[in-house]
UniProtKB/TrEMBL annotation:
It comes from the Bacteria. Coiled coil: none annotated. It comes from Sphingobacterium populi. This is DUF72 domain-containing protein.
């Protein structure tokens, strides 16, 4: 993942910003005794990207991947909307506790820019609901040049998006966050429509770490910089997630990217083991021999 990459990661201040005050208010309002649900995975499962991850002779990469992780950030659906048959094929290759997090196709977000997309949205939803219990949350990622001047278009899209279908939203243009009035209006829209505000932790775009949750779910897209700091950054996240859990966080979706994706499973393994130790979880790590 090249978005937000920098030539010299050592020059970046990777300190996590303070948690937004309204995030703490929201989490407190959703405190529950329900078990903490955590899903950690990579963005891709193909052998070309995850070099060295698969044993020699592995014939079905997704089936193997699903024995090592409990989820996948399904970026493949961004480039081509999946058919119902494709969804069922993916679903049937994974275990009962595995979840898919499909990305809204670029034909909706980038090419149509949310205009006249009803039929495309219906086709995407009708196909991906066939994941059934294995559907985690889809996510809408807008182009970096999509600005608040088109707020009304986004508002209409979210208000008319199929009810009951879980959706996260990621906006990338800096003007969504640098203008406080715009930011608060955006966050309120997500809260009112029940949509999850996605956090992006990448070296070159620290503004995307707004630390504002709009549901009791944290959806984090973490991008390493192929530097030693990638590991300490993850440890900082473990501490922050522990704080959010105590405050009332119910679910965590944490997906790890790298500029050189073959290192993603190594980072994920480190993160999972730190999470297990700090929060008393029993997440499967990629280096364990047990299945999920």
């Amino acid at each position: 993942m090249k978005f937000g990459s920098v030539t010299d990661p050592s020059s970046v201040d990777f300190t996590l910003p303070e948690t937004h005050s309204k995030t703490l208010e929201l989490l407190k309002a959703h405190q529950s005794d329900e078990p903490f649900k955590v899903y950690v995975g990579c963005a891709k499962w193909n052998k070309k990207d995850l070099k060295g991850f698969y044993p020699r002779g592995t014939k079905d990469e997704l089936a193997y991947y699903a024995t090592k992780f409990n989820s996948i950030e399904l970026n493949a659906t961004f480039y081509n909307a999946p058919s119902k048959e494709q969804v069922l094929t993916w679903k049937n290759k994974t275990g009962s506790n595995f979840k898919f997090f499909p990305k809204i196709p670029q034909s909706i977000s980038h090419y149509s820019r949310l205009l006249n997309t009803d039929e495309k949205v219906k086709a995407f939803v009708d196909a991906t609901v066939l994941f059934e219990e294995k559907l985690g949350m889809a996510f809408l990622q807008m182009h970096e040049n999509y600005k608040p001047k088109d707020f009304a278009r986004l508002e209409e899209f979210l208000k008319t998006f199929p009810k009951g279908y879980p959706l996260g939203v990621e906006v990338r243009n800096e003007s969504w966050f640098t203008d406080q009035e715009v930011a608060e209006r955006f966050y309120e829209l997500l809260e009112k429509t029940g949509k999850t505000n996605i956090l992006v932790d990448t070296a070159g775009r620290r503004d995307l770490l707004h630390m504002r949750l709009t549901t009791p779910v944290s959806f984090v897209r973490y991008v390493g910089a192929n530097a030693p700091s990638d590991y300490t950054r993850l440890e900082d996240w473990v501490l922050r997630i522990g704080e959010w859990r105590k405050a009332g966080l119910q679910e965590l979706y944490f997906f790890i990217h790298q500029n050189m994706e073959e290192e993603s499973p190594l980072l994920a393994d480190h993160f999972i083991k730190k999470m297990n130790s700090a929060l008393g979880l029993n997440l499967k790590s990629p280096n364990d021999d047990k299945l999920f």
